[in-house]
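Practice problem: predict the structure.
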Amino acid sequence: MITTVFEYAYPNTRIKAMKAKLLPVESFRKLVHFKTLQEIIAFLGNTDYKQDVEKLSPLYKGIELLETVLNRNLSRTLDKMVRVFPEKLKPKVFALVRKYEVYNIKTLIGGIETGSKKEEIILSLIPFGRFPSHFLKDLVEKKTVKELVFSLKGTEYFDVLFPLLEEFEKTKDLSVLESELDKFYYQKLLEEIEETFIKYIVQMEIDLKNILTVLRLKVVGAPEEKINRNIIKIEGPSSRIIRDMVKAPTLEKAINVLKSTPYKDLVSKHEHEVLYEKSLISLEKEFEKFLIKSYSKLVHVYPFSLAPSIGYLKLKEVEIRNLRIIGRFAFEKVEGVEKEVIWLE
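Answer:
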């Protein structure tokens, strides 16, 4: 389906207005110095989070209040992103924000399988789209992953997960289901995108996720078979690179595979930390910043496309991530939060 420039003009103007409401870097410079959750929540009460803080403050306290405020704000953001697009374009933007339906299912699968408290699972979910609060609360009540999957009958997620239930029941390996959900999300997103270069950046995002997955599992000495189960298997320009990393016998050799790829500069900055400290935190933040810059460039090249929405959602996700981390550090009274924040200058 060919889309015209005019069809993107109005929704992308609205997305631009939403982007203007994101917290500036100066706000985060203040937030990292707050010592209590009360200070952080009070600060958010004077920002675009005001509606959520006022509505939820009578119902929650402390870290539960912050988590719920962030999740509800993100939920409202996702609904608005879909709402501002005309009917013809809704499938495209929904293909982008569908990741939060996938996120909810993965969170439910993991929570139910590991026996997490229902309250803790609910706190992590994002009410959105076909997964409103009342439906999520029903799903949390399921006793087994099999029950959960059958509760999704009538959706595409049942079709994705049902064929894998037998294997999951035998292995109890969550990655059997989780990697298939990720593959489904990215396949549908790539199908909806018309612009070749945007497809290329999405494929690059898949590469970076797979690279982190391979390195994370190499750090703990996982066998090749387990690593293969965890990666997102979508064929693209870098599929061979990922396969070579998986086959590499050691973490160091897996990193060496990347030294002849477009990702060599990103990885080289943090090679010592990955190899000797066995930490991927800095590398993960480096990848996130690289993706945001890449999507931001696309906005100028393809202003009348899905690029502004992809770029905005990435920035919103980083904002939520940073606020969550700052809140957790304040709640646990831990120092050093500045190092954990993704700083976008």
